[in-house]
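Q: I'm writing up a methods section and want to include an example of the input and output format. Could you take the sequence below and give the corresponding predicted structure tokens, formatted cleanly so I can copy it straight into the document?
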Amino acid sequence: MAKCYSEAASSRHGKASYLYRCGECTIRKTGVIGTNQHRRGGNLMDKHISKVHMQSVSSSYFYPWPMVMVSCVSPDGKPNIITIGASSVCSSAPPTIGIAVSPQRYSYRLIVETGDFGVNLPSPEQVEATDFCGTHSGRDMDKFAAAGLSVQPPALIRSPLIAECPVSLECRLREVVDLGSHHWVIGEMVAAHVDQRLLDAQGRFSPSAQHALFCFGGDYRRVGEQIALWFFTR
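A: Here is the clean output for your methods example:
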């Protein structure tokens, strides 16, 4: 018989993951749990779903989009910010990040001309500044000042960083790929700045869902509950 989706149930006492098989629940990986109750997860977790073959394709079918605020600078030193919804880690060694930018955007020219950019991860509390920097052009304004944001000096690149964002990454431009309406701008991360509240007792990065901002088809959202850890099926 076909397998259903797996789901992790958790409590303050510990975690256990479950594998649904035709309505029967079996524990796949055990742990200390405070309750033996769990839930199916809603209609989208049903084993039998009916998919519609859409008449057109759209990038909006891919979700969620992590929101990032990309900081850059003009050759004469004017700072700017552009909000990007399409971004991703491209490689872990060396660490590289890709962002989708329209070549028509003012920031695109700045990034190509200076050869670097900053990737700043905003928190949900910065949603207004995030939206503002994505809907206004920096050609005729100082977005830092207009959005009430502060410049954080970079360590290794020319582009400034955003002091209020909990994570800021310095990137040097490696490659630009023309994909059509947007170009995939790839940068190698050369320095990272992290809010100390996101570090554990050993100084290791331990990101919190409360500090992430995502976009789902035109609206901004916080990250939901944790349902499992990586590799829990091993």
